[in-house]
Amino acid sequence: MACSGKRHYAQKWDRESVKRTLLEYHAKGYDMRESVFITVDCSLANAARRYCGSWKQAMEYAGIPLSYKPPVRRTRESIQKELVALLERGENLSAISVMRNHPRLYAAACKLFEDYRRAVESLGLDYADFGQRIPWTRERVEKELSAHIRGKNPINSAWMVQHKPALHEAAIRHFGSWKGALERFGIAYDQIRKHREWTTEAIIEIIQEMDQNNEPLDYTSLKKIKKINLYEAGQTHFGTWGLALMAAGLDCNTIRRDRKGNGFVGIEEFFGRQRCRKSSLQE
């Protein structure tokens, strides 16, 4: 099943932490059906299956009825509660942000309040506060990144892209890469990923992190930077490195290198050349 929800890259799961987190989501009114929940918190969904055997067994262990479904119809009060919850999680309540990240909530707010701005202002908030854009200067990046690190929050690239994309993008712009931004604070980026079990999820996470940092992902480059173990793990778990890249959401046409060093070539062209070489040898 495709997994597109939130990921806890630094979370150490066990049966009890899975149970506790599931109960927290249930108390907040989330839909606990597996097909829906996997789009909310991908890591927890995977951990529930891993440590409890299946999603059904995880629900039974947590004491959550599988038949539970939240109210389908939203009311003005439920919309206000959802907006408050977003605000408590540190999300921006601007129309663009909510429309992009919570399209159904945005549509319901527009319908029941006639205008999204009115929905926000019904909470006693000034909508203009969320529309202001403070420029991401180098000083602001350093200040917010320092606060993030002091708070002992996850600092790997993939987590930042998912939860704090603006800060992540600004850090890369000012420091050249996410690795460079962390090194500014004396953090060795490789230490974040050095102890990791080779699972399909771990492989996908590392590939996505490297892609976010503009690190090369072709075989030759991985061998040069001593990360050939990632390539081998990708082949083991996915059959081929190309399938591992596609599982991570990347276009392997732009990753595969020509063996002669002539830049990047597409898969069809690559295998076309291989067939030509084979035909030449047979002749």
Task: Outline the structure in words.
The structure is a single chain. Among the domains are: 56 residues, no CATH class; 56 residues, no CATH class; 83 residues, no CATH class. The chain is mostly helical.
Summarize the structure.
The chain is 61% helix and 0% strand. The chain is mostly helical and 283 residues long.
Short key terms for the protein model shown above:
single chain; 283 residues; 61% helix
Shape: globular
Tell me the helix content. 55-70%
Strand content of the residues, in percent?
under 5%
The sequence of SSEs as H and E is: HHHHHHHHHHHHHHHHHHH
Write the layout of secondary structure elements.
Elements: H1 15-27, H2 34-37, H3 42-52, H4 55-62, H5 76-88, H6 95-101, H7 103-113, H8 116-121, H9 128-131, H10 138-150, H11 157-163, H12 165-175, H13 178-183, H14 189-193, H15 200-212, H16 219-224, H17 228-238, H18 241-247, H19 267-282
